[in-house]
Amino acid sequence: MSVEEVDTLLQGVVTCGTNADEVTLEKLRGIPLLQLSRMMGKYLTGEEHVVNAVRVLGLATVNRRDRTIEEVDVMLRFFSRKLSSMQTIAVAVESTALLVRELSSEGPCTSDVFNVLHTEFLQSFSLQALPTNVRSWGYDVLRFTVTKETATWFTTPFLQVVLKSMDEENEPELLMRALELHHIIASYAGEDTMQPLLEEYFDSISSYFPVVFSQPHGCKVSKEDLRRVLSACMTHPLYLNICVPFLLSRMASPHPLLLSRNPRMCF
Description:
mainly alpha; 63% helix
């Protein structure tokens, strides 16, 4: 396509509300990604259409046959920079999650991608301050970076950022994902790396004990699901010296139940 044809196409999907269907996206995916980013510059930097522009760029970034490692790095850094604005934070998390989902289907997280997601993405915003659907995309990114394969790159600062991202989660399905991440970290993080944060991590986990939960209609998570995954986390050998005194203290002096931020849940 000529520059004029591309500009007309972009004007339609970015400024005129034309649906960015697969036919349109395939045309955009035929343009080298960095070149497409430059051609979208006026939309990506102006306030009026930036949200639509970032979304279109995110969709055009995935399902490419010729995407390079350099392009992945550039796009992850670009989306991360958009996290600094309340106007674009949701679409930036969504676009990052779309790319991460595709990368995860191709193989484990690489060290280069891990470092970008740690330093550029996870440290740029507070996940728990965002709506549920946006947090769900954020957990896609967390799940990609927190695995048995990536554990060799875990550092104490990284684990601190991950804890901040998960701490006080109150949506049942997202809490399940958070606790599963807790278990992975407890299982594979190095002892020296984890030791400075051991009590903070256990405090975060144990704040959900005991589980008192009435499953809302349509919720995929049951009370037993939460009990099972919470038990697996709290009784992990890593926390043995902390968990036993904690449970004994609870048995001796029952702790009053406190309502969480979500009125449907009580832990």
